[in-house]
Design goal:
It is a single chain. The chain is α/β, with parallel strands linked by helices. The chain has one domain: Rossmann fold (3-Layer(aba) Sandwich). Helix content is about 45%, strand content about 15%. The protein has a seven-stranded parallel beta sheet, with helices on both faces. Strand 5, helix 5 and strand 6 form a beta-alpha-beta unit. The protein is globular. It starts with 9 loop residues before the first strand and ends in a 10-residue tail after the last strand. It comes from Thermanaerothrix solaris.
């Protein structure tokens, strides 16, 4: 019989309709959790994930909400409270970005990137805490990026937002520890998603091959690799890991790409 370590748990995954978010949602559902799938534009993909969650025997709640806006965060958590009354795990995965050099950044793009990628984690955490307290604790995991520390081309706004996200992870880990809420972050490297394949097909067919060559593990990270680490951080075995950023990149950032 397959183990269900998250049986009876309720998990929120923002940006849960595609890529890493989808893999995380299905990881928890396969292990017994009910899943809240937050999305903004891609309703069809969110519906597919919800159907897969239900096929695994779990409840799925889809909520359209743009976490870049506080009122949308309010709506998201109102739906969670109405449907489940509690929350055990919050995965802050939704992200956006305007990739252009610093000298070409616009105020609107900067603000929106910071709001979705960093600010949303703080104010969603405020809403998640009361629902987790009903359970006697919980877990939060933010999905960040090695670009928070390394300078990547045209990544200045996203990189800064991810650096802020990692700082929030540390501060919340300390502040929420007395409430038995464990907070960490995961920084995936180059992940083999449909978006990457699409970019490669349109712009640079060699990008995937080059990335594999420069990855000591000999392959790219998959969304399922990331989901497994996220799941571990939400397990009892990881209870003493607090405020950390776990890099999942097959060793890519340990070497200088050729």
């Amino acid at each position: 019989m397959e183990s269900k370590p998250f049986a009876g748990k309720v998990v929120l995954v923002t940006g849960g309709g595609r890529g890493i978010g989808r893999a995380i949602a299905l990881y928890f559902a396969a292990r017994g959790a009910d899943v809240v799938i937050n999305f903004v534009r891609n309703q069809e993909h969110a519906e597919e994930v919800a159907a897969q969650v239900e096929a695994l025997g779990q409840r799925a709640l889809m909520v359209r909400a743009n976490v870049g806006y506080p009122e949308e965060i309010e709506k998201l958590f109102a739906r969670i409270a109405e449907t489940f009354e509690v929350l055990d795990i919050f995965i802050s995965n939704a992200a956006t970005g305007f990739n252009r050099p610093g000298m070409q950044q616009k105020v609107s793009g900067w603000d929106y990137t910071m709001n979705v990628n960093a600010r949303a984690f703080l104010f969603a955490a405020q809403k998640a805490v009361p629902l987790m307290e009903k359970r006697g604790g919980g877990h939060m995991v933010a999905i960040t990026s090695p670009g928070s520390q390394r300078v990547l081309p045209d990544y200045i706004a996203v990189g800064a937002s991810k650096a802020a996200l990692e700082a929030l992870t540390r501060y919340l880990a300390v502040e929420l520890a007395p409430k038995n809420i464990i907070v960490n972050a995961v920084a995936p490297g180059i992940v083999l998603t449909d978006a990457l394949k699409h970019f490669a097909a349109l712009s640079d067919p060699q990008v995937i091959e080059r990335a594999i060559v420069n990855t000591p593990a000999g392959r790219l990270v998959t969304p399922e690799d990331v989901a497994g680490v996220v799941g571990f951080l939400c397990s009892p075995e990881a209870a003493m890991i607090r405020g950390q950023v776990i890099v999942v990149d097959g060793g890519y950032t340990l070497i200088t790409p050729g």
